[in-house]
Amino acid sequence: NRLDLGLIVEVWNKGLIWDTMVGTSWIPLKNIRQSDEEGSGEWIFLDAEVLMKADEIYGTKNPTPHRLLLDTRFE
């Protein structure tokens, strides 16, 4: 019910001994469409850091060279 929140996407590289974070992105819930069908997706840049305020994530910063194709939707 709180559209002021968002979805955090994390991409990790699975290693033999430990995992490494490739990047993260924050998508505001108000930017996610409602649909029963797949869309064409959207390329997003992954960032290196998460921004927090009062124990809630509100964004990301410091872009990495990595991008990710995401198709996000509510059904």
UniProtKB/TrEMBL annotation:
GO terms for biological process: dense core granule priming; presynaptic dense core vesicle exocytosis; synaptic transmission, glutamatergic; synaptic vesicle docking; synaptic vesicle priming. It comes from the Eukaryota. GO terms for molecular function: calmodulin binding; diacylglycerol binding; syntaxin-1 binding. Gene3D superfamilies: C2 domain. SUPFAM superfamilies: C2 domain (Calcium/lipid-binding domain, CaLB). One of its GO terms (cellular component) is presynaptic active zone cytoplasmic component. This is Uncharacterized protein. It comes from Iconisemion striatum. The gene is CR855996.2.
